[in-house]
Amino acid sequence: MSDDVGMINLSHFAIFDVEGPDAERLLETLSVAQVGGDKPVGSVVYTNFLDHQGGVHADLVICRLADNRYRVVTGGADGNRDWVTVRNHRDDHGHDADITIRTHDLATLGLWGPRAREVLGRLVDPNMLSNEAFPFATAQQLSLALPDGKNVDVWAARISYVGELGWELYLDNDSTTALPLYDALLDAGVVPVGIETYASSRRLEKCFRLQGADLETEWNAHESGVARAKVKSADFVGKEVYLAGYEQQPVAMLCTMTLDTPSVAGGTPRYPVGTWPILDPASKEVLVDGKGRRSYSTSTSYCPSIGEHVVMGYLPIERAKVGEKLVLEYFDEGGDGHYPMTVRIVGRGSLFDPDGLRVRG
Lower Cβ count inside 10 Å, N or C end of the chain? Predict the structure, then answer.
């Protein structure tokens, strides 16, 4: 995906459409970002839902399909929770909107890499895929002409969780439709990529967050590095606390670190996974922030594009400094499971972005 083009089966995505007179009002009062108002049909908006204490409750994409119709796309593990959140808010406030679950109706295929436009342009008029005709953060209907003469209709959203040019292609979840498209892309030289590359290594190289791991209600949007530069005028759940966060120094910050060495004391290289304590290198005590929250690895993976093992985690604000030396405890057997690491990014940033924001290329 850095040099060519890859595809990923993303059919685990949870998808539901919200339609009706109050569809915009319903989603606007849940979303930190503006999803309605003057947003044009076809807009694709990454947003968060907050709880009433300002904690990050959800991380999802909302697409405007028509004036009073929206599509919500969220992670497979979060789908039922996010659907319940929207449904309950609708029912509690008497909004007139229908919610239709589309998860099982639609298959999803991610297509990303510098050659994504070229490959997709073999199946549709290439002029339709230019930056001008198909800007980043928009969605359109496309009819793809496959080499076998079959036409496949897809709803294509230009967005990326891997930091590269490309699209999420949504189509009927039918083997007579989805498999021919997969085979056509395979024959065009597109490399099938495992979901862990998408969900772990690739997104960690770009320092993208994962709901349920890096994003949790225990931390607010400012601590998580997802607070927006501008705040919309419309009210939304958690807005008062969210606004107050701009005037306060965060107690902790989500940071990105890399292990200094993959082995301890010259031993066998290890590649930590899971949730592990983050320690002070001198005392070997777990770091604790001003609210009593203990630091641990929220995400971790070896990232082949940079040849380093990456760790994400929340650090007390006084330790959230680029160059800060820390220790990750991993299977501490006999005191040998302490892996030195260095803070590389505080809040937003990217470890691997050689050509700038390539997703917009």
Answer: C
